[in-house]
Amino acid sequence: MSVISVTCCVLLFLSFIVEGSVHEYKGERFAARGNAFVVHGGSEGIYSSKPGNFNESSVIPADGDSCIRFEKIVFRRPEESSNFTSRLVQAIVFEVEDRETIGGSAYGGQRAICCTADLAKLGACTEGEIIHHPSTKDPSWPHVFGVSFNAYELVATLPSRSIQVTKTGMYNLYFMHCDPNLKGVVVEGKTIWKNPTGYLPGRMAPLMNFYGFMSLSFVILGVFWFYQYARYWKGVFPLLNCITLVITLGMFEMALWYFDYAEFNETGVRPTGITIWAVTFGTVKRTVARLIILMVSMGYGVVRPTLGGLTSKVIMLGVTFFLASEVLELVENVGAISDLSGKARLFLVLPVALLDAFFIIWIFKSLSATLNKLQARRMMVKLDIYRKFTNALAVAVIVSVGWICYELYFKSNDVYNERWQNAWVIPAFWQVLSFSLLCIICALWAPSQNSMRYAYSDDVGEEFERDDSSLTLIKPSTMPSKDVRTAPEARPEQANIVASNGDLEEDKTE
User: Where is this region: Disordered (predicted)?
Assistant: First the structure.
């Protein structure tokens, strides 16, 4: 693997990358990479330009043009290092498939980025400049141009220019120089990366249409739910109010993400305010959804009126999950750093993953206890709906684990982001999966004239007031108590009540 290939890998994951199609450089320093000094200027997937006339000197690219524009790029050096004329400080733009055209080696030795004396003797390059060769697919690529410092000159300005993109691909920009005497040099200015449809990075562009579709889907689900809610409002119980809250939060989240991407696409700069609101609404929605699933699994609102002593534990878990998720989402979507180092990202992702795992374990343990109790009490209507609910959750968990494995495979086999056109599918899948599960829950507990048969009632909820720490029912003592011996007539009466309750449940089933 060449030095430039290693550099690509390292900088893609560990460097400072601006989250947006307007990449600003505010005093970034050059770092040593091999025998060169490098600043990573950006990496983005760009679709090819639409046919038409391209004006390289135009400040505002025309609709349908794809280009990378350099604006007010300057290099500064400290005064103590200005008493000589420097070698070139160069900008290099290349498509990731052409990464092997950067760098070379003499006599099959170690590959270098900067031209060495041995390579210069062979006539392969000019000593002190970046080694590059024309692409076999398009001889005009890669684009390499630069500027040098004159003696006692503190600032060198790179001429403004636009580079048209005529081929769809993942493009990389690096600022490089090969002069070891240029110490303390920094780069300032900005580059603008544009796709044919706007300023959204290519890997993110499909998500704008996706969030528009999801917004419409939530509206359709909301219209159905709110219509049923208004029509049968007398039969509404607390669980249905919780589902209504999740649908409302989902509608706001999808709309905010759509406007966030639309503004990003229009200006090239991510709107921080809208992004923060979208992240927060999404985090609240995911937290509330998990808590609702957990409470339903415990039988809240269906077979028990309250969570009893578990309320504080559930709230504590929800607050912890919200805080961990909010921090992770804000760091990933807001601010200037888009790629965190492996350890920093693991530090943020791991707590969320562990909390999700804890939710799943607690949910299925509670479901097991609730199903056992429903079966023991012969509440067949509620037992049927809980079995469907359990099956839906089990399928969702299995699909989630499978998709996580696919994500790991996808990312481990795409070191250079060459499959960037399909990257949008990964976040989109989680949105589709959560929406599908919400639709199933809405179908199971949709407001109707028979809604109250799924709600908690005092005559059958007595057994569910206890903590769910035990998965078995308390069996009655085999020895009769004093009260029973002194009042033998109570036994048949109790049997009649149980029989009556059983008949009532069977009538509801019919």
Answer: 473-510
CA-wise closest residue to 163 among 133, 135, 142, 137: 142
CB crowding 157-175: b at 16 or more within 10 Å, else e: ebeebbbbbebbbbbbbbb
Helix (H, G, I), strand (E, B) or coil at 478: coil
**What tokens does 315 get?**
């709230």
Per-domain residue ranges of the chain: 19-194, 202-456
For tokens 């060495």, the residue is 116
| One-letter amino acid for residue 322 of the chain | F
H or E stretch at 177: strand 169-177
Q: What would the pLDDT profile of 88-114 be if each residue is shown by its tens digit?
A: 999 999 999 888 888 877 666 677 889
- Residue-wise pLDDT for 363-418, tens only, equals 999 999 989 988 888 888 888 888 999 999 999 999 999 999 998 888 888 777 88
Query: For residue 368, how many other CB atoms are within 10 A of its CB?
Result: 14
> According to the 3-state scheme, what is the secondary structure of 77-117?
CCHHHCCCCCCCEEEEEEEHHHHHHECECCCCCCCECECCH
Q: Which residues pair with 330 in a beta bridge?
A: none
**Pairwise CA distance, residues 64 & 263, whole Å:** 18
Give the DSSP H or E segment for 211: helix 205-231
Q: How many CB atoms lie within 10 A of CB 498?
A: 11
CATH architecture type of domain 202-456: Up-down Bundle (1.20)
**Amino acid in position 154:** L
